[in-house]
Amino acid sequence: MEDGPEVLVESAHTYAGIGDAHAALGEHDQAAEHWQRALTIYRRLGMPQVDAVATKLSNRL
Question: How many helices (H) and strands (E) are present in the chain, helices listed first?
Answer without folding.
Answer: 3, 0
